[in-house]
């Protein structure tokens, strides 16, 4: 049994070490948000592969040109360019992440279905929608699940319920309130590899107290034979790395068969004193 955990980035001033290699000593997955802004060069992708073990996984966001600017229409060339660019990662690509704008609604589901049918089945595809209709109207929620299920795609589950449970208490939380979607929490799994993006608070205790729902859900998925991936966010992300490991520990305490995370390597040479 395996649970993958990670964060929204692989480097942060508050984290031990610097860069992807140090991050991969702590977590076994990461969100590839940088690829939303530009397709990486071959040398950059090769360096990512060189800094991570073979069982490390990336959830790579498709470029905004594909999802936001062209809204999945006439995108064969940029998608092919992207797939070629990330090919050196091989099986490290957990899924291609199709994050759609909040304005992408039910009337565009046919375009989504046509796009997904043209995507390769390996690696898998994970789709994140933010239009309220997919969360508030059971008909459109069911239709979305039908479209994704027909091609073996997963829905990225984005949970901001803890973030919005109380007014912000810091500048970073205020910014998160402005930027993050306020949508009902969903916890259905369409494939063997569900993906959760959990957004907590800058107070670690509030973040931990709020993720009990997901610990229960992940344990249930494991017992069904699924292999979930959970990304832990907080508004400032200062403690996200250690929180992701703590989430994994809580799941493993209930399901001891889960593979352990890597043991972090020391960031400084040991001393005698």
From TrEMBL:
Gene3D superfamilies: Protein of unknown function UPF0759. InterPro entries: DUF72 (IPR002763), UPF0759_sf (IPR036520). Coiled coil: none annotated. This is DUF72 domain-containing protein.
